[in-house]
Structure formats: structure tokens, C-alpha cells
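Researcher: If only I could read C-alpha cells as easily as an amino acid sequence. Walk me, if you will, through where the backbone shape changes along the chain. I have put the entry right below:
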Amino acid sequence: MIGLFADSMTKIRNGWFTYYYSGGGISSTGALVNGKKNGLWLSYHHNGQLKDSGVYSKSFPTGTLLSWHANGRLSDSMVVSEYDKRISVTRWFSNGNVSETGTLGSNGKRDQQWKFYHTNNHLASVEDYENGELIKAIYYDENDQPVTDTAGKITVPAKFGSGDKAWKKYLLKNAMFPEGVKIKNTTEVTVLASALIDEEGYLTDIHIDIPFHEKFDAIASDILKNAPKWKPALLHGRRMAYIIRQPITFVQN
């Protein structure tokens, strides 16, 4: 991070700031005034693709804010009303189809009617909100049939095979200590990686967030790249992308 502070204790951020990923690429950049976002802020994906673009006043968004997927397709559009500060929201899947539409109140909570869609562009749910509270919801499957039994079908995190134990077993089996490498003062090394589990259950957008050494980092990356499919996450009754941050530990024999 590079930036300017208003005080000698470097507690009040006041000036232009640029944040970086561990690999050196820019994560985000913009101005802070007394610790609050002011003016244009830009953020980037690990691959350098623009991720977010928005103008802020005292950290409150103004005008139109846009976001993009790592593949360059538009992911979010939020338009802030100058009159009442309500925010009109449209989001898209990485395949270009609409994911959801609705309105946020000036407090940032969902309000009035929201519509959510499956990746095939079919309606997944119609949900009515009042100040962030869900009042009424109707759900549909990918073939437009109403879903009456919603237990375990609306909000579910992504899951590997038979569960966490199976995932830990996979990691342990494949986190092989690099040949010809020896470390001192410890017997374990941990690399922190992240990945996006897409709507089909495949791990994509893999990145090493906290590296150790290129040999360990490469193995950790391959472990995620070669992982079997997961059961994708469900949100609002449809399959959704899901981000995981995974520590991978190597044990020296």
C-alpha cells in the first residue's frame, strides 16, 4: 500500500492511496479524505482486468457504479438517485445473462421487488422486501416450474463431494513437499490460495494470496486447478459463483 496520512501516527488516511496484491499488481486506487472515499475509485482483478469503477462522496456512492467479471464482461450496474439516494441494481452472470434486478434503499438494504434469474436466463425467484426484510418469495426451477419444497434449495454454500472431510483428505494427499527442498526452524509451510467456484462447480480464477516460494506456490495452484468438481452454491434458489480462501499446508518429513 502507498498513501498519504494527515497525522504523524499514520492513522488518518488523507490523500491518494494505491493498494497492491501480494504479487505486485494493483488491487485498488483512489483518494481518501479523512479516511473516507472521495472521487473516482478503481479496483482490478488479479489478471489486471478492471473490476470496479465508482465515484464516491464521503464513502457514499454517487452516479453510476460499474463492475466487471475477470473475463471482462459486465457484472454489476448500480445507479444512485440524486433525489432520494435509492440505488437501482442490475447484476449479470459471467456468461452475460442477467442475474438479478432490484432496488436498494438509501441505507443500502433491499427494498420493494427483486427478481433473480438462473444462468439459463429463466426466472429463479420473485422476492418482496421492506427495509431489508424479506416479506414474500416465490421460487422457480430452471424449467420454470414452481418450487414448493424449498428446504435446502434456497441458500446453500458450495460443497466438495461428501463434505469437508473429503476436501481435507484431497488437500492432504496432494500437498506433496517439493523434492530437493529443505527448510529450517519449522516442519510446516502454509500457502494461502483463493479460487472462484463457478455455477457449474469448477474452480476458476485461482490465485496465491499469501505465497511462500515459487515451488510451493505452483503446487498449491495445481491442487486447486486439478480439483474435482464441487456442488455449486445456491443463493435465492439458483446456482451462484462462490469464492473460497484455502490454506494449503505442506509438511516436511
